[in-house]
């Protein structure tokens, strides 16, 4: 499937994060560009996989500006200026973050929470209402608009949290284990949510972690394996990128899951076990 790469949307160079003397992640380098496919709005879907304790959560905290890098830098396209040609260092609030609990305001209904998320947007009350109702309709949440978080299913909470972050943060979003604890139906809802986010704008960039390797391979167009590197025959005790799979270059992105995808699943598992 033909595609071309345009503006750099995410640039990570020589990233490390240490807490005191303990280095958690180190030597993280990668670049993700805006992918353009003719006749299709295509956002970026980037998966991070790896064994527990290898630093994925710390990497996400750095990517969302919640923790300052010890070394290196994280740049994103400044999508508010000049069509995204300028770059800026990530600050807290630039990248949306949806945690495993889909944290929402306990005392706000779905509608009220989304209205609050739009508080800094220069829009009239009517424009905000129309935008919220449009999203609720598209995301299958119309009937839940006056419900509180404790009245929602896990899938409904997740979708509300995702829309909230889209309203707050714009084009970039990190989801920590978005498929964890969901049943089959809710997993399908979450996959549909990914497709919706991707089809809204070509700058939209989803970064997510998952322990479900097949879901990573099915949904992502770029996959990074985070693990302990082997140095002089010994495992180092910090996380880094030990393998990258560009599903676009492998001609496996945006396709039905098949034998080629299964082969990548095997290669990812081998890389994880070795790190």
Automatic annotation (TrEMBL):
Transport listed as a keyword: yes
Record-linked InterPro entries: AAA+_ATPase, ABC_SmlMolc_Importer, ABC_transporter-like_ATP-bd, P-loop_NTPase
Species of origin: Marivirga aurantiaca
Transmembrane domains' residue ranges: none
Cross-referenced SMART domains: AAA
Record has Transport as a keyword: yes
Assigned keywords, A-Z: ATP-binding, Nucleotide-binding, Transport
Gene3D superfamilies: P-loop containing nucleotide triphosphate hydrolases (3.40.50.300)
GO MF terms held by the record: ATP binding; ATP hydrolysis activity
Boundaries of every ABC transporter domain copy: 10-253
PROSITE patterns cross-referenced by the UniProt entry: ABC_TRANSPORTER_2
Name the UniProt record assigns to this protein: ABC transporter ATP-binding protein
